[in-house]
Amino acid sequence: MSSLFKRCAFALAVFLCAAGWSSWSVQAQQSLTLSQGVYTADQAKRGQAVYSQQCASCHGDALAGRLGPPLSGEDFVSNWNREPLSELFGKIRNTMPQNAPGQLSVQQTTDIVAYILQVGKFPVGRAELRADEAALKQIAWSAGAPAQPKPAGTAVVSFPPAGNLAQVMRGILFPSSNIIFTVQTHDPNEKRTEADKAATDKATSEGGFNWAIWGNNLYSGWELVDYAAVALAESAPLMLTPGRRCENGKPVPVNDPEWVKYTNELAEVGRAAYKASQSRNQEAVSDISNAVADACLNCHQVYRDRRRPGVDAIDPSNRAYRCMK
Q: In this structure, which topology does domain 165-321 adopt according to CATH?
């Protein structure tokens, strides 16, 4: 009986252990929130050591910001709490530290995230934050993202247009889009050769203005793609500025629902391009560049290139009919 009892007890223990593991596995696959404790104190301690070496010079010893933005506080949380934790991980992993992006290992990045959570007073858990993007995608900041409060009594400031629509297009949207399109054929990580430098110096010495070489000596290739994507997203609303005129003097149809729709599409694709650029993945940006091209084309076909009776079909850029359906 004693031997039988021991075998039964062992079998029961194995069953309970398996059941517990199964329960833990199911829970791991479900969405978690930071309030449930997703990192350990030891992991945060490791992250603090890496942070001190790699991040503190820009973000401050206490994560309150210095040259870079703060990584703690209400503003920081409000900037990230609509995204899964994987987005913060990806931002750090792909773009930090700024002077040597991508040098942090996956584990180091995860440990830094754990330290950020500890400083933000999110509770400690019993298991470490996993260095796995799929797992991090299952972790939300909170059960529901709070709505952003609107400041009371804030006056709306508007500025009159300084240029016509064509000038906004050619000064901001056209060159920014071209930088994004260039990623299809050039890896932003590629190093400039001596021949490239010589060509840049020659173009500069001849007094030329070239968007392709602008900032070449100041910013990395990926930073230029970042800035171009932000320019698209931020400048798209300029197409809706009241009082703006087209190149031909006609008013921009800022109240036309279709015009508003295309403007929103451009702003959305600009944000998507920035997100793709932050991944530091050439293929991801190349894919989104097609969406940028489509957003431009959708509007151009209706408001720029549409043919009319008596208009030369060979010249779709006829200025007299731009901004008109």
A: Four Helix Bundle (Hemerythrin (Met), subunit A) (1.20.120)
Angstrom CA distances, 92 to 83, 98, 121, stand at 14, 9, 20
Q: What is the pLDDT of residues 225-236, one digit of tens each?
A: 999 999 999 999
User: CB-side exposure of 74: number of CA atoms within 13 Å?
Assistant: 3
Please name which of 195, 225, 290 lies closest in space to residue 95, comparing C-alpha atoms.
Answer: 225
Q: How far is residue 68's CA from residue 75's CA, in Å, rounded to a whole number? A: 14
Where in the chain are the domains? 31-140, 165-321
Rg (CA), the chain: 27
Predicted confidence (pLDDT) per residue in 122-147, tens digit: 999 999 999 988 999 999 998 654 44
Give the C-alpha separation, 312 to 316, whole Å: 7
Distance, CA of 126 to CA of 36 (rounded, Å): 10
Residues 102/280, Cβ–Cβ less than 8 Å: yes
d(CA 33, CA 138): 8
**Distance between CA atoms of residues 316 and 304, nearest Å:** 7
CATH class, 31-140 region:
mainly alpha
Q: Residue 291 — φ and ψ, nearest 5°?
A: -70, -35
Tokens representing residue 302 in the block: 């209706």
Per-residue CA distances from 312 to 47, 246, 249, 315, 318 (Å)? 66, 20, 20, 5, 8
The pTM of the full predicted model, rounded to 2 decimals, is 0.76
- DSSP 3-state of 251: strand
Provide mean pLDDT across the span 301-320.
64
- Least confident among 70-79, 91-100, 221-230, 297-306: 297-306
Place of tokens 């609509």: 82
- Kindly state the helix (H) or strand (E) to which residue 140 belongs, with its residue range: strand 139-140
